[in-house]
Amino acid sequence: MKHEDIVEDATFESYDHPAGGWGSLKAVTSILAEERVLVHGPAALMKQNKPDGFACVSCSWAKPADPHTFEFCENGAKATAWEITTRRADAAFFAKHTVAELSTWNDLELEHAGRLMVPMRYDAQTDKYVPVSWLQAFEEIGRELRKLDPDEVVFYASGRASLETSYMYQLFARMYGTNNLPDSSNMCHESTSVALPKTIGVAVGTVKLEDFEHADCFLFFGHNTGTNAPRMLHPLQEARKRGVPIITFNPIRERGLVAFSNPQSPVEMLGAKQTQISTQYLQLQIGGDTAAVMGMCKWLIEADDRALQEGTARVLDADFIAEHTHGFDAFAQQARQSDWDEIERQSGLSLEAISEAARTYANAKATMIMYGMGITQHRKGVRNIHMLTNLLLLRGNIGRPGAGICPIRGHSNVQGQRTVGITEKPELAPLDKLKTQFGFEPPRKTGLNTVEACEGVIAGKVKGFVILGGNFVRAVPDSERVESAWRKQRLTVQVLTKLNRSALVHGEVSYVLPCRGRIEIDQQASGPQAVSVEDSTGCMHGSRGAVEPAGPTLLSEPAIVAGMAKATLGERSTVDWDRWVGDYSLVRDAIAETYPEIFHDFNARMWTPGGFPRPLTARERKWKTETGKANFIVIDGFDADPDMPEHGSDVLRLQTMRGDSQFNTTVYSLDDRFRGVFGTRKVLLMSRADIARFGCEVGEIVTAVTVAHDGFDRRVAGLRLTAFDMPSGCVAGYYPELNGLIPLWHHADGSKVPAAKSIPIRLERGAV
Ligand SMILES: Nc1nc2c(c(=O)[nH]1)N[C@H]1C(S)=C(S)[C@@H](COP(=O)(O)OP(=O)(O)OC[C@H]3O[C@@H](n4cnc5c(=O)[nH]c(N)nc54)[C@H](O)[C@@H]3O)O[C@H]1N2
Ligand SMILES: Nc1nc2c(c(=O)[nH]1)N[C@H]1C(S)=C(S)[C@@H](COP(=O)(O)OP(=O)(O)OC[C@H]3O[C@@H](n4cnc5c(=O)[nH]c(N)nc54)[C@H](O)[C@@H]3O)O[C@H]1N2
Ligand SMILES: [Mo]
Question: Where are the CATH 2.40.40.20 domain residues in the chain?
Fold first, then answer.
């Protein structure tokens, strides 16, 4: 596909087929052809998510000990093809195009240019990126960093880089002198990392893959599994075959959660068999989760009150509550006093529907709750998670086989990056340990998270920005405001595999450094290297590259981090960076020394089939909380969004989400197959009734305008109204195209995760 070939040719149809199935196989073949990797693509796919193979670069879902022959999904295959593409954004490409010209290309067109091949520096005179040597790049970056105050520099990481790279990166930043270590997690599951320690004393999920076999009820909130963690549909499908109920809470009827046909099962494919996934599908209002779950808690607590009076079997796990929890009485009181009218109004669900879900839950012995961005990316994202744990604790559903809480993480090592110290919160990093291990004084001041880093850039306080993967200016809220301030910075450095928008918005001194991807063979002094990642269930896996690197000039991520560290820190650093790059097992030894509980015998254990688990105290019902117990949390109300005027006015709740053909800001095509949207991403999905209520026509082009009284005009024009099965008052559209609509301050209380799922907007008719 060439730049000029990409035309928007929109069609819409309803998609009645199951997720997976033949459509999935067709899509895999066509992406292999599109990226021109039909030859080495299939061989690479055979090694995906296998012991001694490579860990998929797409989602972070668990990798089983006994993988299928094809332990990948359609979207994992797309991510592989995207990385091992034979398309090249090489020196000749950059000689041809100015940055001003490339800035007019969309995300799809930019990434389609292919793999970055040479280190480059921005040249203001020609407005082009020009090749430089690695040595020159490192030396100038080092020089510039030494001139800046460490507090003025941000070290961002997108959650893909390995445990080894991430550990080196945080050490580099801290030796340099800052805790400004935000990562993509700040826009993602940070609500989880803030909420769970308070309730159950761990920052991550408590569920393991084997628990899926023991669960007899699943509650599923705000995750589009068919697209964003498709391999998870396999254990869910197995559970359905055992007759286990799955109750889904989502404003949209997502195909993957309605029906699934396993593309890796010949029997199902030939017989066109499909499994119904959800047994009850609750299309709640955007942001209605707290109210819906409070409704379930109220039902359970009142049913238990009656059981006590009547002397029948208890509904709550009274023994667990007495022995293991704190704060039950206050929470139960709040639930009893909650008003059903208010619950129905705020959740958009009926008393009957909520009661039915509560009854199913009450009858199950072991329940698991899974959730994604539909829960975390809200003004009240942290509260949402507190409500989910309240519900689990009522029936002792933490720390028992088949039960637990399962946040579905995003990037393939986002959880792991936090585990090895990429965090802006000094209290979460083992600073004293790093101090003795490496003989330096780590900074103690709290660093900037993603939102604060954006504020810093806008205010001119952040003057240097190092990016280890990701597409920062495109992924953040208020993206247009951030973009226009970005160029005021003195230094921007981006370590990337592909060209993206962020690389084009350069600082005064700007470098783009091309790295090898995880799928590529990583030859170093001691031989081919492996790296490791942590999955969503807290298991660590080794990963070994399988294909030749895109080119000889690329360096590995550890080599690039080491190159910058050496040039910046010089004699100040006690680390022998070159030895580490020559042999990553030495980095793993250092990680094991810093975190012995999690990573002891790291090198020996990293190839354990299914991964080796980190210790999780909550699984053993040991509660590392302030009270020493699992805590019920009394909540501060049901309202989804304090910035949102009352429902029923002309203000709509907009959620921005992923389509089927993208990995975050990386757009593979303009189609979203499962939602029946083809050839365009500039749509607003809205109920037919609402389209009529606003006096509009289906297919009409409108402008979305953010309702915020802060003096900024945020609008996105050219959006096509598309009739979709949505609750009234709710609309949906695609990320990252709509990121300019999210005010920077519109983020979750407590975690500062941008509230990308509940943006108050108003429609204006017409394109401008
Ligand atoms: N193929 C592919 N895989 C990916 C990614 C990708 O872009 N492409 N991204 C990765 C990353 S970084 C992440 S974080 C994950 C993201 O995976 P998801 O968490 O699935 O993210 P979204 O696509 O934003 O979808 C959010 C879901 O929440 C629902 N939702 C929205 N608002 C609400 C609400 O108020 N309540 C409830 N109950 N539901 C709501 C939406 O309808 C949608 O189904 O996927 C990871 N995996
Ligand atoms: N409106 C809205 N905004 C959102 C979200 C939303 O749902 N709605 N979701 C948020 C979430 S959950 C997340 S996680 C963030 C994602 O934000 P980021 O993680 O910053 O963005 P990505 O799109 O994943 O980054 C893609 C880029 O990473 C680079 N890359 C890919 N592979 C590698 C690699 O192996 N090494 C290196 N060094 N670089 C690589 C490529 O150059 C590619 O262009 O966006 C957030 N923003
Ligand atoms: Mo994410």
Answer: 652-765
Name which CATH class applies to 652-765.
Answer: mainly beta
Q: Using the Cα atoms of residue 322, residue 328, residue 329 and residue 335 in order, give the sign of their dihedral.
A: negative
Comparing C-alpha atoms, which of 418, 76, 69 is closest to residue 229? 76
Q: Which two tokens stand for residue 454?
A: 């954006």
Q: How far apart are the first and last CA of the chain?
A: 29
Q: Which atom in ligand 1 lies closest to the alpha carbon of residue 225?
A: 20
Rg, Å, the chain Cα set: 25
Residue nearest to atom 10 of ligand 1 (CA): 410
Q: Measuring CA to CA, which residue among 365, 409, 39 is closest to residue 187?
A: 409
For the whole model, what pTM was predicted? 0.95
- Copy the structure tokens of residue 437: 């291990």
pLDDT band at 378 (very low <50, low <70, confident <90, very high): very high
Residues with Cβ within 6 A of ligand 2?
158, 160-161, 184, 187-188, 373, 377, 410-411, 468-472, 475, 495-498, 500, 515, 517-518, 557, 656-657, 664-666, 735-736, 739, 742, 756
Q: How many residues are there in the chain?
A: 768
Mutational test site, ligand 1, from 60, 248, 373, max ligand atoms within 8 Å of CB: 373
Is ligand 1 within 6 A of the CB of residue 262?
Answer: no
Amino acid at 705: V
**DSSP per-residue letters across 535-583:** -TTSEEEEEE--B--S-TT-B-HHHHHHHHHHHHHGGG----HHHHHH-
Q: In what order do the strands lie in the sheet with 539-544?
A: 530-534, 539-544, 612-613
- Distance from C-alpha of 253 to C-alpha of 535, rounded to nearest angstrom: 27
Residue limits of CATH 3.40.50.740 in the chain: 88-187+415-520+553-599
Cis peptide leading into residue 119 (ω within 30°): no
Decide: 389 and 294 in contact? Cβ < 8 Å. no
Reply yes or no on whether the pLDDT at 321 is more than 70.
Answer: yes
Region 88-187+415-520+553-599: CATH code: 3.40.50.740
Report whether 507 contacts 487 (CB < 8 A): yes
In the chain, CATH 3.40.228.10 covers 191-412
CATH number (2.40.400.10, 3.40.50.300, 3.40.50.10950, 3.40.228.10) of 191-412 reads 3.40.228.10
Q: What residues have CB less than 8 Å from 33, skipping those under 6 apart? A: none
Nearest to 539 by CA among 423, 421, 415, 428: 415
Instruction: Write the pLDDT tens digit of every residue in 553-581.
Output: 999 999 999 999 999 999 999 999 999 99
Residue pointed to by tokens 């055979």: 46
User: Residue 430, preceding bond cis, omega within 30 degrees?
Assistant: no
- The more confident residue out of 164 and 11 is 164
- Strands 120-123 and 115-116 turn out to be unpaired
Ligand 1 lined by 663 (C-beta under 6 Å) = yes
pLDDT digits (tens, 9 = 90+) for 597-642: 999 999 999 999 999 999 999 999 999 999 999 999 999 998 878 7
When pLDDT is cut at 50, 70 and 90, the band that residue 14 belongs to is low
Contact between residue 466 and residue 154 where contact means Cβ atoms under 8 Å apart: yes
